[in-house]
């Protein structure tokens, strides 16, 4: 990925002249969210300089870990900034065209403690498949393989009750996908299936694909007027 976007955070990588994260913020803004906590990781100051403290109607708050804490460790570190009883979590390097209001309605109607979005892809090999039972609960995550089969993968979108964050160890790197979710399966990790668009920028190839994918979605290339230089 570094060869494609130099050494900047992937969330700040330029896609059609805009930081990738601005596409995610557009979705949150249009869905009525008011505040976003950005787990900025390394080079958080650079991201703050690029994005500022607000974007459209969104207030942006930054949580910068002193050392890399992994996807789950970053959430635990930012827990004190979350004022609501539950939080919508988005990976900063992927985009899914899911309707967020429908996801939230589903999560609350089912009274889930945690809901993961699984998106259908033609080849699960690069991601690892999500195995789902008939009751819309996740039963397993398969390892990444060179070549996979059609199926559901983790879309990098979750709704999690704040109370669940307490089960994440503090002070060390922790992976949400490899350590925490397998533990939560026994407690009933729910899934919301999505059969729609999905793109990530985790490799130089997928980063290049994101340029045309987000253009095809009709996203406004001038929205936000965020500096990517």
Automatic annotation (TrEMBL):
Alphabetized InterPro entries for the sequence: Mannose-1P_guanyltransferase, NTP_transferase_dom, Nucleotide-diphossugar_trans
Boundaries of every Nucleotidyl transferase domain copy: 14-215
Superkingdom assignment: Bacteria
Transmembrane segments: none
Pfam families according to UniProt: NTP_transferase (PF00483)
PANTHER family from the UniProt entry: SUGAR-1-PHOSPHATE GUANYL TRANSFERASE
Name this protein carries in UniProt: Nucleoside-diphosphate-sugar pyrophosphorylase
UniProt organism field: Desulfosarcina ovata subsp. sediminis
């Amino acid at each position: 990925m570094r060869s494609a976007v130099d050494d900047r955070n992937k969330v700040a990588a330029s896609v059609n002249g805009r930081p990738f994260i601005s596409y995610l913020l557009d979705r949150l803004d249009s869905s009525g969210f008011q505040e976003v906590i950005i787990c900025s990781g390394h080079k958080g100051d650079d991201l703050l300089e690029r994005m500022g403290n607000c974007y459209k109607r969104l207030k942006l708050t930054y949580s910068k870990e002193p050392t890399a804490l992994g996807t789950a460790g970053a959430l635990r570190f930012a827990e004190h900034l979350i004022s609501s009883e539950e939080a919508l979590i988005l990976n900063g390097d992927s985009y899914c065209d899911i309707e967020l209001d429908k996801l939230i309605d589903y999560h609350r109607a089912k009274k889930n403690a945690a809901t993961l979005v699984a998106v259908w892809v033609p080849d699960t090999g690069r991601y690892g498949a999500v195995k789902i039972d008939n009751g819309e609960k996740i039963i397993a995550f398969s390892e990444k393989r060179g070549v996979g089969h059609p199926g559901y993968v983790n879309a990098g979108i979750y709704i999690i009750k704040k109370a669940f964050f307490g089960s994440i160890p503090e002070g060390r790197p922790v992976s949400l996908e490899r350590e925490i979710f397998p533990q939560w399966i026994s407690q009933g990790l729910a899934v919301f299936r999505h059969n729609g668009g999905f793109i990530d920028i985790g490799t130089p190839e997928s980063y290049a694909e994101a340029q045309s994918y987000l253009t095809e979605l009709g996203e406004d290339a001038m929205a936000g007027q965020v500096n990517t230089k």
